Input
Amino acid sequence: MSVVDFTQWVIPDLPILLGGKTYSAHPPSVDQAKIIVAFMALAEIKLGLAKGPADPDLVALADAQTDTLAVITLGQAVYDQMVADGVDEVTIDRVGFYGMLFWTQGKERADWVAEQMWSPKDSEESEPSPKARRRSKSGPSTASANRTRTASTRTTGSHKT
Output
């Protein structure tokens, strides 16, 4: 009987490039994956992306954790190396959150969320274009939705004075 080489089907590591150095987080173990899924489910409820209330078992599992999200999603060795390399706490937290998204929802979704949350916003992009209609600050719009021109009649048109 021949041996099956399963290497091509193994979940790859999560490579993280920071300051010219690449860290490599291994896929979570079964126990870590349970915790990551619990954190993700609770985050979705907290953010209003899923309806609550949260499952008490998920809450208990999350509450029982003493490690940071980054330790759980990246592994202790990667976390320790980032700390030793002087990576700041906010960045480590963001990478840990990204890891949670990556392991539960995939790279495409994790990249999209990271882009929305942490990319610098260009001040010109955040302002509506000059041609864009601005909402009234004093109340709802009174403009008609019907843009069809109608002719004035003697009773509704303006009179010359």
Summary: The longest strand covers residues 14-18. The two ends are 104 Å apart (CA to CA).
